[in-house]
């Protein structure tokens, strides 16, 4: 968990623009806890934005970095704010929805549409990695889809199909 300054209502992340050398070694501001600091090289981020995903991964490997700075910033921000994401997918689009950690399935359905929460019956859930690898039908065939009820607490990365009746 990142350090929170000024009490629980003012979470802060200090994003440090560093060069390549300091990105590998780490960099810090004195007087500020390390867990509140996020070193990112804006120059490297700009270069990554111009590369394909595959080339960007290779470039990060050569730098000795596991993940792009923008991805780390998003992850740190979600963590600091107590947020998670679930997914829905249909023939036209796949969409990510942001919820507070600890949200139960009916309230998550309500983020999509209030009628989904009012008429909630159940949710069919697949881990996002299984969904990407096998799709909804393939995951169901392999027994990777599970049915959850009203007390289910949503997990980060759940791929969901909500069943409801209005």
Summarize the structure.
It is built from seven helices and seven strands. By secondary structure, the chain is an alpha/beta fold.
Give descriptors for this structure.
two-stranded parallel ribbon, five-stranded mixed β-sheet, Rossmann fold, Ubiquitin-like (UB roll), 166 residues
What does this structure look like?
Helices cover 39% and strands 24% of the residues. By secondary structure, the chain is an alpha/beta fold. It has two domains: 14-80, Rossmann fold, CATH 3.40.50.300; 83-164, Ubiquitin-like (UB roll), CATH 3.10.20. Strands 4-3-7-5-6 form a five-stranded mixed beta sheet. Strand 3 (83-89) and strand 4 (94-100) form a beta hairpin. It is globular. The mean pLDDT is 89.
Please write out the topology.
Blueprint: E1 14-17, H1 20-25, E2 37-40, H2 42-49, H3 53-63, H4 69-81, E3 83-89, E4 94-100, H5 105-112, H6 114-118, E5 120-127, H7 128-141, E6 146-148, E7 158-164
Parallel strand pairs: 1-2, 3-7
Antiparallel strand pairs: 3-4, 5-6, 5-7
